[in-house]
Amino acid sequence: MAHWSRELMKSAANITSISDLQAIIDVMPLPVFIKNTDHRIVLLNEAACEFFGHSREVMLGFSDFDLFPEEEVEVFHAADNRVFESGVLSENEEQVTDAKGRPRTVITRKRRVELDDAAYLVATITDVTAYREAEAHSHYLAFHDTLTGLPNRALLNERIDQALLRSGRTGERCALLYIDLDRFKEVNDTYGHQAGDALIQAFAERLTTIVRASDTVSRLGGDEFAVLLIDRGEDADVDLVCHRILEAGAEPFDIEGGRVFLSASVGVADAIDDLNSTEFQRRADVALYQAKREGRACYRRFTSVLDERIRHDRQIESDLRESLATESGLEVHYQPLFHTAGEKLAGMEALVRWRHPEFGLLQPEEFISIAEETGLIVPLGEWVLKQACTMMARWPDLVLAVNFSPVQMREDSLVDRILGILKQTGFEPSNLELELTESAVLDTDQIVREQLRRLRAEGIKIVLDDFGTGYSSLTHLQKLDVDKVKIDKSFVHDIVTNGESEAIVHAVTYLARVLGIPVTAEGVETKIQHDLLGIIGCSEMQGYFYSHPLSAEDTQRFLDDKSKWTRIA
């Protein structure tokens, strides 16, 4: 189309009469019209008639006032007059109203010609409305989330850059909030992705009602959102927004198939210290990570102390990954378990330790939670199990207790991998006890339930670890398929001085005895604790009163000396 327009402009310079011009424009596919210096149409082709919506006979003699709104005419006349005065080819993109009253985007090309000693203006119209609309739509998609219509990360980045520039220039305070919906995956798994999309849209609408129009609510992807708050003078103002976001996340969502209850976690970063965009967003992400670590359904602000803790955790993750890859630094220690009756050795519990090159010998509580969060608990757990089974296979009369994480229990191939390790090391399944927390044993996930069933069917014992941390545990005990219960050491520690702890141990032990389930007391440190637990009826005990955890070398020496298998209290 542009080619036709350019050819016409070239031809117009050689035309000597109106009749010559009419013959040329009649074959043009683009709308073409000729105006005189009074801005009235003297010639036009069929394409122009179709564009303006009138016949040739009607349009001849029309001025721009007959075709366009007055505010458009003023712009057109000014442009036409410049062409009449200069004689230079003019090309402009303009907004015009077509015959149906619709706004159109057009490119007009105009040239002055001298015909019969009079000046005329030859104009062509190229309609680029569809192209500009497609271009605008592509631009919109590049900067907006298709599901919610919210700004996406690209547009958020632009607005963060602008906010930080203003903050540096004027001191205007701004804050960035990272938001994550807790347990959103369960919605997709239970109700389907369509329901999940509906929930995301509903939460997006709630967020937009919480903040001002000058703020930016963005969807980063999945169930992750961000809110950029600008010109916020007080911390309390940001705190109020955070509280409202938590309330919006906790309010039930009505979706097809049911009512869903979720929560939101929020991380907050304040624009201070001449931040750049990358660091600003990293701080919000660090704060969100901490909010999720602290139980979710809360908000946390970025601090330098928090940042140092996160950096430490990430170093632990990286170094643990390296240790697993090279099988260096990790150790398995063993702590004896004794039968209360006769004080005879019942077995050994495998306890992982990590000899870190910088931080020294680390206890499980210093790295296990990080391993669980990052998924490293799976290879770590398998490594511990293999080492312990290899070690203890030499003593077939003893039980081996190994801690297992809820994360491990959700692995589809868990049972097959455990059985493979037992076969490889020659360890009897009936001598293996897997210690699981109450949350793992109570997990309603079908995969977990099936894993537990298969493990017990193979003769592997399931031990409920750290039991008694809540009164509700007593109601659960009679519903669980477990082979042993271990009372949490916190109750053992206080059993002599705290009547409530003693009552809990009494209740758990009595109910377990009625159900025919053995009870182990862990964390036994003194003779008075030992004697009281024996009177209450605990069938096994474990703790410093008997022995500290032993290295693999000390364990071998301990087990090789059969005289140590019986302890005289």
Tally of contiguous helical segments: 23
Distance between the termini: 102 Å
Rg, Cα atoms, Å:
39 Å
Strand order across the largest sheet: 13-14-16-17-18-19-20-21
Helix coverage percent? 40-55%
Structural class: alpha/beta
Overall spatial form: elongated
Quick check: average pLDDT?
Answer: 88
Largest sheet: 8 strands, mixed, barrel
- What fraction of residues sit in β-strands? 15-25%
Task: Point out poorly predicted stretches.
Answer: none
Number of DSSP strands?
Answer: 21
Commentary on this structure:
By secondary structure, the protein is an alpha/beta fold. Helix content is 46%, strand content 23%. The chain is built from 23 helices and 21 strands. It has an eight-stranded mixed barrel, surrounded by four helices. A five-stranded antiparallel sheet has the order 2-1-5-4-3, sandwiched between helices. It has a five-stranded mixed sheet with strand order 7-8-6-11-12, with helices on both faces. α8 runs antiparallel to α9. The longest helix is centred in the middle third of the chain and has 23 residues. The chain is elongated, with a radius of gyration of 39 Å. The N and C termini lie far apart (102 Å).
